[in-house]
Amino acid sequence: MKNTTHEIRQKFLDFFKEKGHSILPGDSLIPKNDSTLLFTNAGMNQFKDFFLGKKQKNYSRIATVQNCLRTGGKHNDLENVGYTERHHTFFEMLGNFSFDDYFKKEAIMYAWELLTSKKWFNLDKNKLWISVYENDIETYKIWKNIIKVPIEKIIKIGDKNNIKYNSDNFWQMGNTGPCGPSTEIFYQFKIDYTQTTQELFNNNNCLLEIWNIVFIEFNRISNTEIIPLAKKSIDTGMGLERIASVLQNVNSNYKIDIFQELIKKISYFSNIENLNNISLKIVADHIRAIFFLISEDITPSNEHRGYILRRIIRRTLRHAYKIGINQNFFYKIIPKLIKLINIPSGILKEKEKIIQKILKKEELQFSQTLNKGLKILNQEVKKISNNIISGKTAFYLYDTFGFPIDLTKDICRERGIKIDLDDYNKYKNEQKKQSNIRKKFYKNYNQDIIINDRSVFCGYKKNRIKSLIKYIFVENKAVSSISENQLGIIFLDKTCFYPESGGQIGDIGKLYFKKTCFLVENTQNFGNMIGHIGKVISGTIKEKSTIYCKIDKIHRNSIQLNHSATHLLHAALQKILGNNALQKGSLVSNTHLRFDFSYTKNINFSQIHKIENVINEEIRNNHLIKTKNLNIEEAKRNKAIALFDHKYNNIVRVVFIKDFSIELCGGTHTNRTGKIGIFKIIGQSNVSSGIKRIEALTGQYAINYLHYQDTLIKDISLILKSNNSDIQEKIKNLILKVKNLEKKADQLQNKENTNQIKKLLKKVDNIKNIKLLTHILHKYDQKSVRIIVDQLKKELKNAIIILINKINNSYTINCGVTKNLTHSITAIDIVNIFIKETQGKGGGKKEIAEGGGMNNAKLPIIVKNIKQWITEKLKNNIF
């Protein structure tokens, strides 16, 4: 096929490279520096700080291909996916950007050249239409006088409701900030002359928007005032899937090459042959979004990004169920998808098994929920008379079966039924209120507590101090006192408890005075205040009273050993792997440490051993660990490791471990490296694209781990009756022996299968020259049953084979129908009759299908009925 999606993507990048642009990789789907976004939804997201003037650019001309996800907020396409030809959850955005370099004329000329030049996309100029902001005369003249677009094909888009700059062709980053007019390029599929210009532009079947070019030339000061920017920018976006549909001459994004191959693969598992089926499109779209979300190390959960992922997975499974996919299929699509993505990176391939494992688990967990939820929902739909499902029913499905409200809304929408959402929210809020009462407060504290005050941390040098109780909170409300067995948060004027910060977990310990005692289970920051979260175990504690605070020293010391070891690890990684091995996250607890860092290559055992050796050498050197408060410029001159594009106070705390490690850090540390004792890496893994993770132990925990490993090897040696020195050879010999035994077992099984086939051939019924075999086996090897069915189909050539395998209280059914008979009787039809009668599960295709269930008692009756049903069909000369 000419102009494959991959070729189109590459042509775009090649064109702009030829025009002097730096080709940069797209950003992560998880925005790095924008808390307002759950996911990257446009190519400009990663350059937001450049447009705002917060960062200096390294390049003046850039082109990217950006992975985008639109599933919520202002850009929410989830509900439209599959029902239109253009909407997607996941898509690729082609974009070129200019920062104080070229502007309107060049941006428009580049776009026109790429689209119309024979060397590039070679689109018919006569099929391109343009929209401009009504007041942007300069852009209008460029299109009219320089590009020579006929004026009847240049549409001016004005302001809505007579509000200045309130136009579809005037782009704004927010209520204030950079903004400017835009011009859009549309491709003409067909023209309906009965429509107005506005109706024409709103009809994707007539005109399809393929490229949006934004001229960022103003700064919005208020609702009514904008001023010119000293430095102007260009921000463009062209959806890869849309331009591919144009260049491949199809009227739907779902008909482009990559989607068609994916849809065909999915249809293989379904009973749908119409590749234009809405559910097929939804599954194809969603599987791409799911794949890339899990590739970014997001896992299904009930909150934040994990909730969005779970929501998409469950919506996909519901539509798979609609098209007859009742088996675990999700993970089987992933290898095909990886081939279609065609990105030259081994990282995606590395993620394949992880993604498949997550999808298998999620599909198994939700399959029962889906079946039960749909059954109840169908029952309720039959009862309603006013086309409205009660909120109580919707909440019952959610609360009892975990059936998401989004899924209920999706199903009801398809049937033209509404949900009483006010009633639903009433039940949900009531449940939340009851749930909050039941929860342990110190594990579920409310970070929304805001106190306009400051705590002083004195814990770098002191483990016990006398403090003043300033505030007490119980169930998120300020109180004057807290009594025995009550859970709450206590805030002091000063404390030696370190709050969870920078990856280091919070301190534990106690607050006490005479006969009163408050057990601190966790310590957290609440703005500038430090909250001690826990429970009163004796007495009553009152606000404005004096109290002693004392940390658990053993707990703190263990944390400190791991934190200092983390600094040694960071330095060792840079020494062994190179300066690009930079920290991306960490966890420092009392039991272990975890360190995430950037690194694109694989890490081998040899490198792991080198890292351990370097760190343990520094531990044996027993270096003094010092801290100094320096201004930020002094810290930089000392080559302290830090994320200098983050915001720091002018004075920063720097931790020195001789000249081996110098880092900015606010955490607590031991005073000498020798106290760490020993450092042992126990795990190394990939977290996400280009991010590695190392887990390690120190001190007594590391020694315990080595003791455990030593005991394990000794236990294995005893089992194998060998010495530690020859254990490896012994295991190799055992593996070889097992393989030989398996080979012999396969040979015996093959003989058994051959004998079984001979016996079964004698039990074949002959009806109208068509052979019918139904037989019940007992505890037979399931793999062999499949082989036997295939072999019988080849032997009999014109046959229907039904083999049932009883295993204790359950059964499996394997059915084969030769191809010449499937126009009237199919294997999946037969299997469906069995599983319907026994509430089982199954799936397959016309020629081969299998399933199973638990109700063995019904099998003889079902077999008798199925034989009669098939016999009647055969006798009636259907074939």
UniProtKB/TrEMBL annotation:
Any one GO molecular-function label of the UniProt entry: zinc ion binding
Classification via NCBIfam families: alaS (TIGR00344)
Subunit record text: Homotetramer.
Coiled coil: 724-770
Cofactor(s) named in the record: Zn(2+)
Protein name in the entry: Alanine--tRNA ligase
Lineage per the UniProt record: Bacteria, Pseudomonadati, Pseudomonadota, Gammaproteobacteria, Enterobacterales
Broad EC category: ligase
All residue ranges annotated as the Alanyl-transfer RNA synthetases family profile domain in the record: 3-708
Annotated residues for binding of Zn(2+): H563, H567, C665, H669
Reactions that this protein is recorded to catalyse: tRNA(Ala) + L-alanine + ATP = L-alanyl-tRNA(Ala) + AMP + diphosphate
Annotated cofactor note: Binds 1 zinc ion per subunit.
Family of this protein: Belongs to the class-II aminoacyl-tRNA synthetase family.
Swiss-Prot/TrEMBL keywords: Aminoacyl-tRNA synthetase, ATP-binding, Coiled coil, Cytoplasm, Ligase, Metal-binding, Nucleotide-binding, Protein biosynthesis, RNA-binding, tRNA-binding, Zinc
Gene3D superfamilies named among the record's database cross-references: 2.40.30.130, 3.10.310.40, 3.30.54.20, 6.10.250.550, Bira Bifunctional Protein, Domain 2, Threonyl-trna Synthetase, Chain A, domain 2
Pfam assignment, any one: tRNA_SAD
HAMAP family per record: Ala_tRNA_synth_B (MF_00036_B)
SMART domains xref list: tRNA_SAD
